[in-house]
Amino acid sequence: MRLSDLSRLLFLAAIWGASFLFMRMVAPVLGSMPTAFFRSATGMLGLLVVLLALRIQWNFSGKLRRFLLLGVINAGLPSAMYCLAALVLPAGYSAIFNATTPMMGVLIGMLFFAEKVTLSKAAGVAIGLIGVAVLTQTGPIAFNLNLLLGALACLVATACYGFAGFLTRRWIGQQGGLDNRLAAFASLLGASLFLLPMMIISALHEPPVRWTGWDIWLPLAALGLICTAFAYVLYFRLLTDIGPIKASTTTFLIPVFGVLWGALLLDEPLSWTYLYGGSLIALALWLVVKPAPVR
User: Does the pLDDT value for residue 45 go beyond 90?
Assistant: First the structure.
């Protein structure tokens, strides 16, 4: 891997790790559903500007409805779940739970898509679950119902990512590709349309603490424009340059940056449990994503 590719990989992990920090800053003030909606909507508008500037041809090849639905599964629901978790969990917790995405993919593939599970992947799932248990039961935050619900919300989000991966392969990949930037825009459009009524109902039922303030809208703009729109473009470029396997190693790095940003900028407590639980999840992730031996 070239030094420039490695630098972009680290930069992308730092950006996505910061997304949990920004959600933790905004969601307790603005509310979980408004935060999720404005993240998706801002990212969608940012990508719209990119598409117009690059003069991308608007051709969805008859797949617009599928991309809108995928946007609900891959962006709308996960964003809502992570914003709910941000009400009760430190940013570092959410970032570490996010690393369980490949393990959720293995479970969902086995249960719903008749995917074969190797011994390595099965061991990875088991070790990953142990890592989650270690983090939730012995971490720096007291184990209670709020912690349990926050962890469950994160796992629902990673399960959505797992489903979206298989549906994308079945609905999109196997029937001809589409410009990745156009696909990302359509996905965020679907997520925004899904989250809009939830945001309105939430704001009417439980109004935000306040709507104004740079401490709300600056991190929210960073969440939508940098952590969503710009990160999509950067990630798709990495997919082209180094391939999906190497690009997926960002999943190993995101928890490191999530914990780091939370400790440095929000004074979140550090604990050796982060290392223990995170190491188990990292080992599980490696067992799941490592290439199978060539016969």
Answer: yes
Kindly state the average pLDDT of the residues 11-30.
Answer: 91
Q: Which residue's structure tokens are 């196997």?
A: 174
142 torsion bin: left (phi>0), alpha (psi -120 to 50), beta (else): beta
| Coil vs helix vs strand at 268 | coil
Instruction: Name the pTM for this structure.
Output: 0.82
Helix, strand, coil content of the chain in percent (nearest 5): 80, 0, 20
Burial class for 2, CB neighbours closer than 10 Å (0-12, 13-18, 19+): exposed
Helix 91-98 / helix 3-30 crossing angle, nearest 10 deg: 130
If one counts every other C-beta atom within 10 angstroms of the C-beta of residue 266, the result is 13
With 0-12 / 13-18 / 19 or more C-beta atoms within 10 angstroms meaning exposed / middle / buried, residue 89 is buried
Q: How many CA atoms lie within 13 A of 137 on its CB side?
A: 6
Helices vs. strands in the chain: H and E counts, helices first: 13, 0
Q: Taking CA 221 as the corner, what is the angle to CA 216 and CA 223, rounded to the nearest 5 degrees?
A: 95
Percentage of the chain exceeding pLDDT 70: 89
**What distance in Å separates the CA atoms of residue 178 and residue 168, rounded to the nearest whole number?**
11
pLDDT for 230-267, tens place per residue? 887 787 677 667 765 566 667 777 888 888 888 888 88
CB 201 within 8 A of CB 16: no
